[in-house]
Amino acid sequence: MAASRDGSGALQIPILFEDNHILVVEKPVNMPTQEDDSRDPDLLNVLKADLKHRHNKPGNVYLGLVHRLDRPVGGVMVFAKTSKAASRLSDAVRSRQLDKTYVAVVHGKPPQPSATLRHFLWKDTRTNTVSVVREGQQDAKEAVLDYKLLGSQEGLSLIQIKLHTGRPHQIRVQLAAIGCTLYGDQRYGSAVNKPGQQLALWATALAFEHPTLKETLRFRSLPPMQRPWSAFTLPEL
C-alpha cells in the first residue's frame, strides 16, 4: 500500500487497523512523523485531520504519538486514540515491550551472519547528527539491536533488525559503525551513496499488547518492490 490523495487532494494514509483505542498505519517515506521546521505535512496532523473528517468530530481531535520513525523511513506505526491508550503504549515503549522489526539494505556485508550490537550514542542537536562515543560520555545513551543477514548480492546486503532501544538514527548509526552503511543514507553515508537515492530502511513488523483488550496484536508492512528492495526476497514476518 502507498499513500494516495482523495478527490479533494487530501493525503490518504494506509490504515492497517483501527478501533476506539488505537490507530495503526503505514507511514509514507519522506514524511515527518510530527511537525518540524520544514512545515511539510506531517503524519500526526494528517491523521488528526483524517479522523476529524471521517468521524465528523467537532473541535480538536486527540491522537497520541507514542513512538517515531525518522523522516526517510516508511512502515508500520501505532498511534493512541485515547489518553489511557497513550499512557499504556508509552509504558510498553519504556519497558521495551513494543516489539519492532525492520529490514534494511546496506552496502557491504556484516562481519557475522547475526549479532547483537551495543553502542553508546550521542546526539548533536545543532547538526541533528548522532555518533558512537565511549561509555560514560555526558548525555550518551545506550543503544541495542539484534541483526540477521538475510542475503547478499552485488555488493549489497539485506538485513533484518530487531530494535531493543529507540534512539534517534540508531539503526543507521550502529550499522554504519560496523561498516554497513545503509543504502541511500546521505547523512551517514555520503561517500558511498548518490544524491537522490531513497534510504532503504523499512519498519516491517510491530507487535504489542492492546492497551485495553490485553491481547497481543501483530502488524506487518513490506517496502515497495523497487530498487534496492527488488533485488532481494523479503522475509515472511
Give a short summary of the structure:
It contains 3 helices and 13 strands, in the order E-E-E-E-H-E-E-H-E-E-E-E-E-H-E-E. The protein has about 240 residues and is mainly β.
How does this model look, in words?
- The protein has 237 residues and is mainly β.
- It is built from three helices and 13 strands, in the order ββββαββαβββββαββ.
- The strands form two sheets. Strands 3, 4, 5, 6, 7, 8, 9, 10, 11, 12 and 13 form an eleven-stranded mixed beta sheet that branches. A two-stranded antiparallel ribbon has the order 1-2.
- The longest helix is centred in the N-terminal third of the chain and has 12 residues.
- About 3% of the residues have low confidence.
Helix-strand blueprint:
Elements: E1 4-5, E2 11-12, E3 15-18, E4 22-27, H1 43-54, E5 64-65, E6 74-80, H2 83-94, E7 99-107, E8 114-124, E9 129-133, E10 141-153, E11 156-163, H3 170-177, E12 201-209, E13 216-220
Parallel strand pairs: 6-12
Antiparallel strand pairs: 1-2, 3-4, 4-6, 5-6, 7-11, 7-12, 8-9, 8-10, 10-11, 12-13
